Amino acid sequence: MLKVTIDGKTIEVPAGTTVLDAAKMLDIPIPTLCHHPKLTPFGGCRLCIVEIKGIPRPVTSCTTPVSDNMEVTTSTPQIEDLRKTVLELILSDHPNDCMVCEKAGDCTLQELAYFYGIRENRFAGERRIYTKKDGNPFLERDMEKCILCGRCVKVCDEVQGVGAIDFTYRGFKSKICPPYEKDLDCEFCGQCVAVCPTGALTGKQWAHKGRQKDIKEIDTICPYCGTGCNITLHVSRNEVIRVTSKEDTWNEGWLCVKGRFGYKFINSPDRLKKPLIKKNGKFEEASWDEALDYIATRLNEIKAKHGADAIGGLSSARCTNEENYLFQKLIRAAIGTNNIDHCARL
Amino acid sequence: MTNSIKEIEGMEVIFIIGSNTKETHPVIANRMIKAYRKGAKIIVVDPRKVPMTRFAELFLNLQPGTDVALLNGIAHVILKEKLYDKQFIDEKTEGFGEWEKSVEDFTPEYVEKITGVSKENLIKAARLYGNSRKAGILYTMGITQHTCGTDNVNAVANLALLTGNIGRESTGINSLRGQNNVQGASDAGCLPNVYPGYQRVDIPEIKERFEKEWGVSLSEKAGLKSTEMIPAALKGNLKALYIMGENPVITDPNMHHTIKALKSLDFLIVQDIFMTETAELANVVLPAACFAEKDGTFSNTERKVQRVRKAVNPPGEARDDLFIITGLSKRLGYPMNYNSPEDVLEEFGKMWPALGGITYSRIERNGIQWPCPTKDHPGTEFLYKGGFPRGKVHFTPTQYMPPAEITDSEYPFILTTGRNLFQYHAGSMTRRVKPIETHAGEPYVEISPADSERLNIKDGDMVKVMSRRGKIEIKAKITPRVSKGVAFIPMHYREAAANVLTNDAALDRHVKTPEYKVCSIRIEK
Fold first, then answer.
1. What pLDDT does A132 receive?
2. According to the model, what pLDDT value does residue B253 have?
3. Last residue of a domain, one of A32, A50, A75
4. pLDDT digit of tens for each residue in chain A (346 aa)?
5. What is the pLDDT of residue A160?
6. Which residue of B has its CA nearest to A255?
7. Do B203 and B182 share a structural domain?
């Protein structure tokens, strides 16, 4: 274990711990943009700089491992000045359209600009202009808002193992794009959207559905495969408008294309809304009482004539434990047969 | 799964057989990639060059339906090179001697002839797996959807027993469940031979316990499996069927046959969220609530019971299944009284102690993995830590048996079916999601470049695909993912449904799972 003192507080950490992580353990906030706890450190944004006793220049805390008896200061007028300058430089090449940005209210860059009180920009000048050419139906890429933090590049490679995007060009011309600057053609897991700290990457389906105001967040489980990823439904006016996953869940916030973008069936106009009884080959709407009475009558008739074993039930791996328990109880106890199965074989 | 998903990260060797994990369980694949980054060696066994092969140390490209031969071959090499765990075998297993003899014939040369996997690669795989004591096997329907599915699973288990790779962290046998709550539906007793918690209906003491709790006398006769209900309907033995949230027209083998069977019923009830192909055949259709519109729990593939929460109201008069089932039960003269879904889970836990310690308040933030018998039990991350429930585990000899339908001059291709990354199962959910449909809305058949040249079929051509059961027209996708003589069709698309072609007559002899992974077809331009 190594001893480190940060802003006068001391802690012992295992070798290899970064100064940033040690500060986090002490609940000392250090601003970051490119850092993500689940990805390898990058040291690109320079916001997490700190002063370390014995080192003449500020160093990035996300890439500096703790050494024994290190003394760290996270905030001095000079450091804060540097951080503000870094932010101003980033913002000098960023469209100030928070008013219409999908990410407003949930944007790390906006939040930092707020804390550092940046409105006017002394570095105003040339801006990078991109032509949008996204034909893909899932991800909206607004590259003028990209701050080149590289989180999307890292998550795509390190976590997803795909490597659909990377940095290209140098200096002011740097950008992140798929090979040959073509449109994205990837797994569309949206991991990049989840880690983007600005409005550069968003879901196309999210547009104009609401930002933060009046949105309820409900934690639940993904309805697709058996992995059981924890998801959060964002709900506005009885409509699911977005699906995300929290970093502190067992699936670490990672989802796939179906889990993240496959939610619109919930509000599909095709949903069944009324019980239907087929009469003369055509479905007619019925009330619940009519439908359930009719079913009970028919099942009783069939049971009386052919016995309970002439009736079967197929339950669903899509339904909850509670529903499945009750369904087999209905078939076994109320109808009286063990003709009950579900799709585990299919 | 005997392990937890997160334990994959700690595996030294990951043996993936019959699972296209990157597309069908993408977030589990992320764990495998994490293990790979830490130095784990991955072996992929599959008839298709699935995306996980990018991370594989070894890719064993076997002929569909030859898994038993391959697994026995690996066991043969492990035995011959003495890589097995003698102490584990002596202490925890039985039947080793007899089983050992049964794999004697599976020499690498013999296995190469059956599977098409070179003997060098087979030996390499055996050494990788056999030398590790922290190896995990992961499989899916590529193992089970065969006439020899049970044998496949036994052959997988034998490998784990032989090397002692079970009962510890990051080593075990893991079947990845394909649907959100297939684990839970099985646990809850939606199976014809067992009550909730896999308790057999034909054991009198068990039956009596359920009769006492439910206050009614129960049948001791095991019921029909889903794949037996369809023929029973055709024969006229099954008169009424109540289907909650399934779409057998698309998901069962031999679609024309399924439709005929459902039409011959006197009475069909379908409870669903959409007017599915199956619902169209029903006498009564009941509108159900979807996952976002109800409270309850799902159990995932690692046995973790997790909380499902209501976020929105169901549309129109759609109701959750609990309302519907209790409403119907009352009318059938058997009222069920529950105030909330939690009451149901409590009764479930009372009848099956493995769930006894799980309450909604305990799983408010994080799920708990069963067995969890008491309220202070933390749940079970991996199974068989303290040994096996029946004492010693038996090695079950398995013999190679070719698939039910083998290719001939009339039907010279092997068809294998499955899912792709974007669509889900019968497609009633994902096909209503516009971006998914825009991106992956078209059915296709994967054909190898060699076959495409021979048949003069170009990428994007419309081709006719036929089997002894039916015919579809579908777009050709020329890809090296499949090998020569093998074709793949995803199951999701009703307009070119793979299950028009699949073989409903070929079922696993023990558990009656259809052989979706192998049937013979012809492809014509």
1. 76
2. 87
3. A75
4. 999 999 999 999 999 999 999 999 999 999 999 999 999 999 999 999 999 999 999 999 999 999 999 999 999 999 999 999 999 999 999 998 899 999 999 999 999 999 999 988 889 888 888 877 788 999 999 999 999 999 999 999 999 999 999 999 998 899 999 999 888 999 999 999 999 999 999 999 999 999 888 899 999 999 999 999 999 999 999 999 999 999 999 999 999 999 999 999 999 999 999 999 999 999 999 999 999 999 999 999 999 999 999 999 999 999 999 999 999 999 999 999 999 999 777 6
5. 97
6. B27
7. yes
Summarize pLDDT for B158-182 with one digit per residue, the tens: 999 999 999 999 999 999 999 999 9
> What is the number of CB-based contacts under 8 A between chain A and chain B?
448
CATH code of the domain containing B443: 2.40.40.20
Q: Are residues B106 and B248 in the same domain?
A: no
Residue A219 in contact with partner chain B when CB distance is under 8 A: yes
Together in a domain, B195 and B154: no
A120 CB contacts (<8 Å, ≥6 apart)?
Answer: none
Residue B325 lies inside a defined structural domain of this protein: no
Strand residue runs (E) in B220-371: 240-244, 267-272, 284-287, 296-299, 304-308, 368-369
Number of domains in chain A: 2
Q: For residue B414, which phi and psi values (nearest 5 degrees)?
A: -95, 125
In terms of domains, do B204 and B237 share one? no
Asked if residue A45 is part of any domain, the answer here is: yes
Which tens digit of pLDDT belongs to each residue from B442-462?
A: 999 999 999 999 999 999 999
Closest CA to B230 of B251, B260, B250: B260
Domain that residue B230 falls in: 226-287
B23 in any annotated domain: yes
How do beta strands B296-299 and B284-287 pair? unpaired
Residues in B touching A194 (Cβ below 8 Å): none
A19 within a domain of the structure (yes/no): yes
Last residue of a domain, one of A40, A75, A110: A75
Domains: count for chain B: 4
- Can you tell me the mean pLDDT for B466-472? 95
Residues of B in contact with A312 (CB under 8 A): 223-224, 229, 232, 238, 240-242
Using alpha carbons, select from B338, B308, B342 the residue that is nearest to residue B323.
B338
Distance from CA of B62 to the nearest CA of A (A): 22
pLDDT at A346: 67
Q: How far apart are the first and last CA of chain A?
A: 53
In a domain, B398, yes or no: no
User: Does ipTM come in above 0.90?
Assistant: yes
Single out the residue of B34, B18, B28, B165 nearest to residue B88, CA to CA.
Answer: B165
Q: Are residues B202 and B239 in the same domain?
A: no
In order of B54, B111, B126, B152, B402, the CA distances from B107 in angstroms are 28, 6, 12, 18, 17
Q: Are residues B252 and B265 in the same domain?
A: yes
What is the side-by-side order of every strand in the sheet holding A70-73? A9-13, A2-6, A70-73, A49-52, A59-60
Output helix, strand, coil percentages for chain A, rounded to the nearest 5.
30, 20, 50
Nearest chain A residue (CA) to B312: A238
Tokens of A20: 């940033």
Asked if A265 and B429 come within 8 Å (Cβ–Cβ), the reply is yes
B232 and B133 within one domain: no
Q: Considering the domain boundaries, does residue B388 fall inside one?
A: no
Quick check: helix, strand or coil at residue B359?
coil
Measure B314 CA to nearest chain A CA, in Å.
Answer: 8
Which residue of A lies nearest to B235 if distances are taken between CA atoms? A310
